[in-house]
Structures are given as structure tokens and as C-alpha cells.
Amino acid sequence: MSKFFKVILKNLIKGPSTIKYPFEDSPAPEKLRGKIAHNSNLCVACHLCEYVCAGGAIKIQESEDKKGIDFVVWHNTCTFCGLCEYYCPTKAIHLTNDYHTAHLQEDKYNYVEKTFVKKQPCICCGKPIVPLALSMVEQIYGKEGDARGLSKMCPQCRRKILWKGACLNYERRGNE
Amino acid sequence: MAEFLQNIVKKSPWIYRINAGSCNGCDVEMATTALIPRYDVERLGCRYCGSPKHADIVLISGPVTAVVREKVLRVYDEIPNPKVVVAVGICPISGGVFRESYSIATQLDAYIPVDVNVPGCPPRPQAIIDGIAMAIEIWRKKF
Amino acid sequence: MNSAEFLVNVLIFPGGLFAIMLGLFLTGLDRKIYARLQRRVGPPICQPCIDMVKLSQKETVIPKTANYTVFRLAPLLGFAGMLAAIAVIPIAGIYSGLYQSGDLLVILYLLSTPALALVIGASASGSAYSSIGLSREISIMLAYEIPMLMVFFTVAMRVGMELGGTAIFSLSSIVDFQLSKGPLLLDLPMLPAFLAFLMCIPGTLGVVPFDIPEAETEITEGPLLEYSGMGLAMFKLTSGLKTLVLSALTIALFFPTELGSFWLVNILWFIFKCVVVMLFTNTLIRATRARMRIDQAYKFYLLVPTSLALMSLVLTVLSFRI
Using CA atoms, how far apart are residues C249 and C238, in angstroms rounded to an integer? Predict the structure, then answer.
């Protein structure tokens, strides 16, 4: 019985421990998994995030004028699990620490993060392709970057150039 | 006079929770918003009440499963007007991760009119307080 | 007394307006201090007033299985009983009670009207949870009335034997006796009776650890389940008034003192004593105890306060016969 009274006395002396939230600021911890942010300069539209998304919140679709790719995340189905951030090869999608997610019913279907990944023409044939991000170029071709411009070609031209190079190497070796 | 009454009345909304088949994650967050000293909602005048007849703001969590759908509609009808509905978590808003399941037909706002959405799985208690503050603003205009 | 004075006493001071404001103030203070004891900020002290205003603006939903007339009239029964009860209790130095003899028994009857109103209202609701709540309410009412009756009898005997020969059941003569001879609290045989009365108060008010009829987590607010809007406001108001009546009764029975003769000082001293009694019986107990089961509450009430009151009665009678 007396233990309780000691606790009460201590509580009265220490005062309230409330964070008066709307009137006082309540900062989020740095590693908090909050809303999604997408960087379209790094995205290669590999569809991995769409495949692993737990709530089915990500949609990657070619835009109507075929000039790029629409990337849409609907926050109302996002579970904030972080799987897309874990599996993204270029770290184009990441979770911020913004937790202020309450909104009115009228904004329900507008509560999205929408970005546009622009396509660039292939330097060989001119077909519009999604370019490789810089981090992927470094990963594949090493520190010197790619001297032959392979990362700016569409897959068919790339295969052609590589095959030609393979033939050349074969001929050269055969001749020696 | 109506303005004066509205200003008084908005300081005492009573909250009632309905669990429409949820995993209890959002229920735990809703309980911590009121009861623990850290995020006290009682200083805003809110109070958790035990009966739907005493409620003003309804917090609904969980996708509306087939078993619980009628009961949620019955309890919703018992709440006296004016009332505001807040959908907590992503499950009532869009079905969440359970969207294509065998027991879930549609999302909550096909059955009852929802006013405020608070997505998150589960949303942070501060985000729920934000949602309740928005709901109070809508509620006082209904008087 | 003429009818104008009677109306003022019942409707404005000390019944009616003064009692409603003081009752709501006590309830608000209790909630604020309870929150501070738990390291929370707590609602503002005028929160119960705001709750009443809001409840009066909501619509009333009546269930289909309810008896329409009784359902709507039941809250008024307790409210009327409590308003009448406050007018009967004398306040030291300001107000002598409405009646000169027999008013202790009148108070005893009036104190049971809020519980009866709850029971009648709950049975008129026609819901299963309400019927569980009302049977628990009746059970606990039987338990706490016994020690309360014994304490009243002890005080009446004490005052009566000193003045005449038999017990005097009149609050005004009890208060006058204490104003001239000193408060009964300082008299050693009466101390167990005081403790017994303090233990009966949480049961009457429906406060943890005895809030069995209104157990929120078990039977979803029991008797009050089907009430909304104005009826609920009346019940909450009655509960606040009951706090005031019981505090005022404790003060009138055991320590009615007055500081000087200026009326404002006496009123403030009365309010201060009310707050102290309410703190010790309501807030502190609510913050440190858990809810008891009905059989544990029964055992407690039939053993502890009853034996204390009995001890006090025996000591009083013996001190006069010897």
C-alpha cells in the first residue's frame, strides 16, 4: 500500500511527461520508415519494386505518348515495409521520415507520389530507351566508365556491337 | 450563437473504436494515443467511451471482412448524429495487404461515408492525433 | 419558512445552481488531479461543463425494446432527489437546514434515489448488458447501506445522549451541538465511525474499486449503455451532485466548523473542506486501487466498515452508561 503512495508522490513532483503534440513539435527519428520518395533520374524501370511491394501500391506503366514511363505510388496502400528500398538496384526509391499522413476523404485518390522517367534515344538506332543510371554503369563497367558508350544503346544495338567485337577478336586470334 | 456553441462543443469529442476484422496493430496504436501519459488525448477533451450511444468520433480499423460486415453496420447505426468517421490504417481505406483475399469484398467507404483517412501500417500516434484534430474540425461544422 | 425562501433554497442556494456548479467543479478537479497523479496533463477543470453542453446538443436514440416513457423519465428521478438532498443539509455558519427534526432519515432515503433511478432506467432499456449492470447495482447497494445506517445511528446516539436521553435524528441539532462543543472528529470513540463512513463513499459514488455496475471493460458501461444526449447528461450531473451531497454530509456529521462570521469566508472554507474530503475518498483511492469483484466487495463491506461502525457505537453507548 505504501509503495503506491511513494509512486504518486514521485509523479506529482516530476510533473507531466506529455509531448503536447499539435502545439509542440514532435520530431521523427532519422531512420523512421515514412512516406515514399522517388528519384526519376536514378530509376531504370526494372519493375523490381512493383514485384516485391506488399500492398500493391506501386504501378509502373508506359505513358500514353510513349515519351517516358509513369511511376505512381498510392500512399493509401503502402505498408511502409521498406522492401522496395531494399531491392532497388539503383536506390532510386527510398523512404523518408515523414509521418504526417492524415488527409481528408476528398483527397483520397490524389494522395500519390507521381514521377516521370524520361526516355532517351539510343545513340546507334535512335529508338527511345530508358537510360542506365550512373551507379549501374559503374557497377557493370568499372571505374573508367564505359568508353564505347554501351550504356547509352538499346539492348539490340548493344548485342550487335558486342558480337562484332567478338568476331573481330576471334578473327585476330585466328590470324595469329 | 451557433458559432459560440460550435466553439464550446468542439472541446469535448468522445471517441469510440470499432475493430472491423483488423490485425490489432492499429488498435494497439489507438489505445496508446489515449491512455499513456506520453500522447495524452484527454487534454484535448477527448475520452474513450464504452458504448456507441455515447460516441461522437468513430475510429474504424481493419478491412471489412464478410463475417463482421453486418455487425459494423449495425453498431454504426446506433451512434447518434452528428458523427464523424475516421478510417485508421490502410486496411479500411483500400484493403491494405489483404486486398485480394477471399473474405473482403470492397473497402469501407462503399458501406458507410468516411470523413478522414489516416494511412500507415500502423500510423504513428501523432498522425492519429492529426486525424482526430481534422475530424473535430469537420464535426463542429455539423452542429 | 415561507415559500419564497423555500424556492430560493432549493433552486439557487444551496440547491440548484450553486450545487450544480460546485458539483461539476468537484468532478473536474477530480479528473485533473487524477491525471496529474499519472504524469499526464489532464483536461481543463471546466471540462464537465463542456461535456454537459455537448451532450445536450446530441440527438437521443431510443432502442426498439425500450419502454418509452420510463426510459425518458428515469434520469430525472435521481436528479430531483439529489437537488432536494442538498437543500436539506445545513452548512455551518451560513445556512441552517430546511427541517428541524427527522431530516437525517430523509437524507438516508434521498441518498438511494440516484441508484434507484439507474436501476429503473436500466431495466427500461431492455438490453442484456443493462440487466447485468442493474443486478450488480442492487447488490452493491445492499452492501454499503448497512455501515452507512450504522454510522448515522452512532452520530445520532452520541449527540442525543449528551443532550437528552435518546437519539436525535436531526442534522441541524447535530450541527448546532458541534458548533458549541467542538467537532465530533476530535472525539476518540467517533473516529472508527468516521473511517467507516469514508469507506462507504466510493461504493455509493460508483468509483474504482467499487465501480462494479459501471464496469467499462466488462459490460460496456452497464446501466448507462442505451442512454445518449440529454438523458446521459442528467445521469452525469446526478453523479456530480452526489459527490457534493456526500462530502457535505461528511462535513455536517463530523466537522462543521466556522471561521468567523463573514459569509464569504465560511463558503470558501466549506468548499475547501469539500475538496479535501473528495480528494481522499475519490481521487487517491481511484488512482491506486484496481476494481474488485462483487463477492470481494461484499466481503469487504460486511466486514470492515460494519465492524468499525459497530465498535464506535458500542464505545459511545458504554462511555455514557459508565
Answer: 16
Say whether both A124 and A53 belong to one domain.
no
> pLDDT (tens digit, 9 = 90+) per residue, C169-228?
888 888 888 888 888 888 888 899 999 999 999 988 888 888 888 765 566 677 888 888
ipTM of the complex: 0.85
- Claim to verify: residue A113 and residue A148 sit in the same structural domain: no
Out of C47, C61, C232, the one facing B45 most closely (by C-beta) is C47
The answer to whether residue A144 sits within a structural domain is: yes
Q: Is residue A12 part of a domain?
A: no
DSSP H or E segment with residue C132: helix C128-163
- Mutation choice for C interface testing from A2, A17, A23 by most C CBs within 10 A: A17
> Hey, where are the domains in chain B?
11-140
Taking CB atoms and an 8 Å limit, are B117 and A99 in contact across chains?
no
Report the pLDDT value the prediction gives residue C305, as an integer from 0 to 100. 92
Contacts of B9 in chain C (CB under 8 A): 50, 53-54, 57
Q: What local confidence, expressed as pLDDT, does residue B111 receive?
A: 92
Residues A109 and A38 reside in one and the same domain:
yes
Chain segment C66-104, per-residue pLDDT in tens: 888 999 899 999 899 998 888 888 887 777 777 777 788
With CA atoms as reference, report the closest residue to B17 among B33, B40, B1, B37: B33
Residue C254 in contact with residue C179, Cβ under 8 Å? no
Does A94 share its domain with A126?
no
Angle, helices C230-254/C68-88, rounded to nearest 10 degrees:
20
What is the Cα–Cα distance from C185 to B102, expressed in whole angstroms? 71
In this complex, the residue of B12, B45, B80 whose CB is nearest that of residue C228 is B80
What's the CA gap between C251 and A30, in Å, rounded? 58
Contact at CB, A11 and C36, closer than 8 angstroms: yes
The list of chain B residues with pLDDT below 70 reads none
Structural Rg of chain C based on CA atoms: 20
Residues B46 and B33 sit within 8 Å (Cβ to Cβ): no
Element of type H or E holding C32: helix C16-37
The residue of chain C with its CA nearest to that of B36 is C40
DSSP C91: B
Q: Are residues A103 and A49 in the same domain?
A: yes
pTM: 0.85
CATH number for the domain spanning A109: value is 3.30.70.3270
pLDDT tens-digit profile of A35-59? 999 998 888 888 999 999 988 899 9
> What angle (nearest 5°) sits at the alpha carbon of residue C6, between those of residues C4 and C11?
95
C39–A11 CB contact, under 8 Å: yes
Q: What is the DSSP string of C95-115?
A: B--S-SSSHHHHHHHHTTHHH
- A136 within some domain: yes
- The total number of structural domains in chain A stands at 2
Rounded to the nearest 5 degrees, what angle is found at the Cα of A150, between the Cα atoms of A148 and A153? Answer: 130
Measured between CA atoms, how close is A166 to chain B, in angstroms? Answer: 49
User: Is the peptide bond preceding residue B82 cis, with omega within 30 degrees of 0?
Assistant: yes
Which residues of C are less than 8 Å from B37 in CB distance?
A: 38-40
* A13 within some domain: no
User: Which fold, B11-140?
Assistant: Rossmann fold (3.40.50)
Sign of CA dihedral A29, A33, A38, A42: positive
Domain that holds residue A136: 120-169
Q: Is A26 exposed, middle or buried (0-12, 13-18, 19+ CB in 10 A)?
A: middle
**Minimal CA–CA distance to C154: which of C200, C113, C206, C120?**
C200
